[in-house]
Amino acid sequence: MNLARSRGAGLHRMRGAVTGLLLVASLAAVGMITSCKRKVSEQQCDELLDRFAEMVVKEHFPDAGPDVIAAEKQRERTEAKGDVFHNCTSEVQAGEHDCAMKAKTSEGVIKCLE
Fold first, then answer.
1. Cα 60-110-77 angle, rounded to 5 deg
2. Arithmetic mean of pLDDT over the chain
3. Do 45 and 98 contact (CB within 8 A), yes or no?
4. CA separation (Å) from 73 to 5, 52, 56, 76, 108?
5. Residue-level pLDDT at 111
6. Confidence (pLDDT) at 6
7. Cβ-defined contacts of 54-62 (< 8 Å, 24+)
8. pTM, full prediction
9. Rounded to whole angstroms, how far apart are CA atoms 73 and 110?
């Protein structure tokens, strides 16, 4: 009888360990999925928008002076915020933001956000 109780207790501990491992694995998977889907903050959107606007201005006006660059950057920022970056905080994911911030051209930024 002691042998039967011993086996039963061993199986109970084994089931508990397996259940614990499954719980940990499930939580890890959920964490990975939600971190991949994490959206960017308003500040991150502003940084991205500034970077994009500056790229566009420098690509279109490579020889422009500081006053022209500032005016065009503001115009481009306003235009992009109403178009490409309209729903930035609700649609842009962290990975897309990272890609866009590393992009070398305005076209590269747009490709990261598609």
1. 55
2. 77
3. no
4. 77, 9, 8, 5, 18
5. 95
6. 55
7. 55/103, 55/105, 55/106, 55/109, 56/80, 56/106, 59/105, 59/106
8. 0.63
9. 17
What pLDDT score does 36 carry?
Answer: 54
Tokens of 55: 């790229």
Size (the chain), residues: 114
CA 34 remoteness from chain centre:
10
Collect the ranges in the chain with pLDDT lower than 50. 17-35
Say which residue the tokens 């991949």 belong to: 36
What CA–CA distance (Å, rounded) separates 73 from 58? 9
Please tell me the predicted confidence (pLDDT) of residue 42.
Answer: 92
Amino acid at site 84: V
Beta strand segments in the chain, E: none
pLDDT, position 112? 94
Both tokens assigned to 57: 């201005």
d(CA 83, CA 80): 5
Copy the structure tokens of residue 69: 């660059």
